[in-house]
Specification:
The complex is a heterodimer of chains A (396) and B (189). Chain A is α/β, with parallel strands linked by helices and 396 residues long. Chain A is built from 13 helices and 18 strands. The chains are: A alpha/beta (396), B alpha+beta (189). The complex binds nicotinamide-adenine-dinucleotide and zinc ion (2 copies). Nicotinamide-adenine-dinucleotide is lined by residues 38-40, 170-171, 174, 193-199, 217-220, 223, 237, 261-263, 265, 290-291, 308-310, 334-335, 379 of chain A. Chain A: It comes from Sphingomonas naasensis.
């Protein structure tokens, strides 16, 4: 099959590799119809995520048709499914609590060591996202082996196009969980840092949860424009002083809840040698913790901080004093995608949530390297790139 | 023989398991002792029964090629060694209590003196806490290399990985792999 493989910093290629096979009873093989490039993929593209190996197949946002099933899979051939980017077994203690991204069993036993050393406990497995999260082949490919296919993928009713449901795989639930973690109460003013896909879905979700006003912060005019379309007020941090603007816009109180949807962005979180010497290695502070630092300072006393943004290692100058003195609450985590999928699918079917606005470019899988470059170089206009393995064939 | 991890010596000043002590060895002899605990979301009786059928151990213990039951308490362990070789010894159950405890020890003439103990403790809604403790007396030479491989660089890591695989098998019915093809899966073994 053809698949987008990582070969190094700013070097991704569409390679021909062996097709995936059913290896465990609960597996299914999915023929990918649509897959997206995520902001998180840019961290891989820029070479900042450790434990990547040349030839790793990328992609954690994908959907497609079931073409093969293991004896314990509950899926049927021909069904269309969206696959959650967090892999989860459905039967461990954490899955029982719907904390799917904390699943005990989705990471191969040997891969669990790295996270055990770095974080104290290993997390769930992720598709196409380095060997620390399992080393699983991702979905920017013609076919994917999907473990635990009896509990993860959600079946999509006929007649709903891919574009409407693809983002159930990650960014829509992530934006929704970000708003949920902000504990929004009616009348709240919510501030969102970052108007990428995650931030934009957090804006939509915050309004649906009863926020009175949402203030969106970014520096790309087009992305701020999209936030405005959903009713947000905007701050362009290159043109205005964010903290001062927020204070004036909230009558000096500060937002009731703040959401950091920026993340480590193009800044690495640690030096190499991480597998062998995790405990000894020096971790570089990410200067882009700017957004969470600013969010904590701006947040009103007793307010809530939600952090969907991804951080990986240690940081410098975290405003722990402000956090403690103001009595803030912080909630965060990789998204428990499986928990949110059914409700959000309903919201899409009922027309309460629109996801298609986000897609700025659709390309054949063969042009994936170009997609990465565009997404990397022009974030203002390129808001989301969707890749279609079938498209190249159709054009020929 | 391995100490019961839960039992504290009179002089201990805290409640932490003995093997976590920063000074001295828990077993009190020259043995290396490793212990690992995992919580498995299944009833103790089921986990005990699976483990007590020693042939099953090879399904989740990476370096154990085969365990053949010789009679009710004795079993022959065949363990992978470098260069495609194996080493073998006979183990004997020294203590057992249904659904709670199994302890075993290699017979006196074993090239690698070793003993082990696994305890199953009911943990209510969380399932069962499984604590495995393994003690061995690492010899020099070829066999020393075998032991080093069996327990890898850090013996605790190997025990932890084996217990994780046991948990995966019991909770999900399979052992997680990130291989994409059968060929890759075989290469990983
Ligand atoms: N928790 C999860 O499970 C999960 C899932 C998906 C993505 N993420 C993470 O969420 C974050 C956002 O993802 P995305 O796909 O929207 O990424 P993205 O890169 O498309 O968007 C980030 C946005 O933040 C803006 N930004 C940068 N610095 C800023 C600053 N100082 N103040 C305000 N805005 C700033 C950028 O201009 C950009 O528009 C990433 O860290 C990603 O890894 C987390
Ligand atoms: Zn993503
Ligand atoms: Zn689980």
């Amino acid at each position: 099959m053809r698949a987008l493989a990582w070969h190094g910093k700013h070097d991704v290629r569409v390679d021909t590799v062996d097709d995936p096979e059913i290896l465990n009873p609960r597996d299914a093989i999915i023929k990918v119809t649509s897959t997206a490039i995520c902001g998180s993929d840019l961290h891989l593209y820029d070479g900042y995520i450790p434990t990547m190996m040349a030839g790793d197949i990328l992609g954690h946002e994908f959907m497609g048709e079931v073409v093969e099933t293991g004896p314990k899979s509950t899926l049927k051939k021909g069904q269309r499914v969206v696959v959650p980017f967090t892999m989860a077994c459905g039967s461990c203690y954490h899955c029982g609590k719907h904390q799917y991204s904390a699943c005990d069993n989705a990471l191969p036993a040997d891969n669990q060591d790295i996270a055990q050393e770095l974080y104290g406990q290993p997390m769930s497995g992720l598709f196409g996202y380095s060997h620390m999260t399992g080393g699983y082949a991702g979905g920017q490919a013609e076919y994917v082996r999907v473990p635990f296919s009896d509990v993860g993928p959600i079946v999509i009713p006929d007649g709903i196009e891919d574009e409407k449901v693809l983002f159930l795989s990650d960014i829509l639930p992530t934006g929704w969980m970000a708003a949920e973690n902000a504990g929004i109460e009616p009348g709240d003013i919510v501030a969102v840092w970052g108007c990428g896909p995650v931030g934009l879905f957090a804006v939509q979700s915050a309004f649906l949860m009863g926020a009175d006003r949402v203030i969106a912060i970014d520096h790309f005019p087009h992305r701020l424009e999209l936030a405005k379309r959903f009713g947000a007020e905007t701050i362009n941090f290159e043109e205005s002083a964010t903290y001062e603007a927020l204070m004036l816009m909230t009558g000096g109180i500060g937002p009731d809840a703040v959401i950091d949807a920026v993340g480590l962005e193009a800044h690495g979180f640690f030096v190499d040698n991480v597998i062998d010497q995790i405990k000894a290695s020096t971790f570089l502070g990410t200067d882009r913790i700017h957004s969470i630092r600013q969010a904590i300072l701006a947040c009103r006393k007793g307010g809530r901080v939600s952090m969907p943004a991804v951080y990986g290692g240690f940081v410098d100058k975290f405003p722990l004093g402000a956090f403690m003195e103001k009595g803030l609450t912080l909630r965060t985590g990789q998204t428990h995608v499986q928990h949110y999928m059914p409700g959000l699918l309903n919201a899409i079917v009922e027309g309460k949530i629109d996801t298609t606005f986000l897609i700025s470019h659709t390309l054949p899988l063969e042009e994936a390297p170009k997609g990465y470059q565009m997404f990397h170089d022009n974030q203002n206009e390129v808001t989301k790139v969707v890749l279609k393995p079938g498209l190249a064939l159709a054009a020929e | 023989m391995v100490n019961d991890m839960g039992t504290r010596e009179a002089l201990a000043s805290d409640d932490a398991p003995l093997v976590t002590a920063k000074h001295g060895t828990a077993a009190g002899q020259s043995d290396t002792v490793v212990a690992s605990a995992v919580t498995i979301n299944r009833p103790a009786a089921e986990l005990y029964a699976f483990w007590r059928d020693f042939a099953n151990l090879a399904t989740f213990m990476e370096n154990v090629e085969r365990v053949d039951a010789l009679d009710d308490t004795r079993s022959r362990w065949v363990v992978k060694a470098p260069a495609g070789k194996t080493v073998e010894w006979v183990s004997r159950v020294t203590e057992e209590a249904a659904d709670r405890l199994i302890a075993w020890e290699a017979e006196a003439d074993a090239e690698v003196p070793n003993s082990g103990r696994v305890e199953f403790r009911d943990a209510g809604a969380r399932g069962t806490v499984v604590t495995a403790t393994i003690a061995y007396d690492p010899p020099a030479g070829f066999i020393g290399k075998v032991v080093a491989k069996m327990f890898q660089r850090e013996p605790a890591i190997q025990a932890r990985r084996d217990l994780r695989r046991f948990k995966q098998l019991m909770e999900t019915g399979e052992i997680a792999t990130s291989a994409r093809t059968l060929k890759q899966l075989e290469e990983q073994d």
